């Protein structure tokens, strides 16, 4: 977590919940527009860098791309751009890409605060900032450590879960996203002011790792025996003709993984052979009264169309109620829901 602020200026910048990207030099503005149009910052600083260098490193502007994880700061800095980080013990780290032909990567720990700029030391007033695009000379962040329980050093523990941190889930790595264009517009209209946006709730997803065997990785594969504690509330039809009854929870993706059983047992893992589909793209689950569909912060998103209404792109982590005849488009894959009740 971070508490963001900025010094107003004319450099395009984009803030995410835990990500900051600041652009400077030639091609700063069109590159910032491309990153913003593709929603790359939502996937972390690495996803933003993928878009920045898509036209080749020689065409990339000077930039800082940084991500926060607790009190750790990771990213890259290119050209005259600069990171100035203050550590919890008072040390100061200054990083710049000025002496590098490509960029300088960094991973700093025990960081209390940092600033990102284009090498300008001039002092200027700051304002609070929120996720979205803005125009700045400098970005500021105060890192807020995640709370954790302090154990009494004089307390003797037996072997139990208290000795281990069983709750931490590894961060989801980025996936490459196709480039998208944004309608041309005036610079001030895009980055002239901070946009105040609600922070999307992050969906918990298991680690996306390549699996070399055919083990179920925490769930039952579609077609295998799976718990069916309730009568089907309809079915979902897959592009290859499979028809799956809606009785519990389905995790759908290119190589889906589950983090454990849900309230009715192990989820069914449904594999979709489509490179545009994320490894664990979405969840379909049945509760006592409804069938619900949730986008699991997929890279290319989910377009949901309810019967009798137009298509709507879901926000990352958004859950919608599935109605009879609803359709979910995942890249080039279409799921059709039939007989939902």
Which structural class best describes the helix and strand composition?
mainly beta
Would you count the extended β strands for me?
Answer: 21
Q: How are the strands ordered across the major sheet?
A: 1-2-3-4-7-9
Could you name the ranges where pLDDT drops below 50 across 5 or more consecutive residues? 155-218, 223-228
What gyration radius follows from the Cα positions, in whole Å? 23 Å
Number of helices: 3
- Average residue pLDDT: 78
Main β-sheet description? 6 strands, antiparallel, barrel
The share of residues in helices is under 10%
What's the overall geometry? elongated
Tell me the fraction of residues in β-strands, as a range: 35-45%
For the record, give the distance between the C-alpha atoms at the N and C termini, rounded to a whole number.
41 Å
Q: SSE order, as H and E? A: EEHHEEEEEEEHEEEEEEEEEEEE
Detailed description of the structure:
- It is built from 3 helices and 21 strands.
- The protein is mainly beta and 341 residues long.
- Strand 11 and strand 12 form a beta hairpin.
- The longest helix has 10 residues, at 28-37.
- The radius of gyration is 23 Å and the shape is elongated.
- The two termini are 41 Å apart.
- Mean pLDDT is 78; it is low at 155-218 and 223-228.
Keywords:
single chain; 341 residues; mainly beta; 6-stranded antiparallel barrel; 6-stranded mixed sheet; 3 helices; 21 strands; elongated
Nutshell version of this structure?
This protein has three helices and 21 strands.
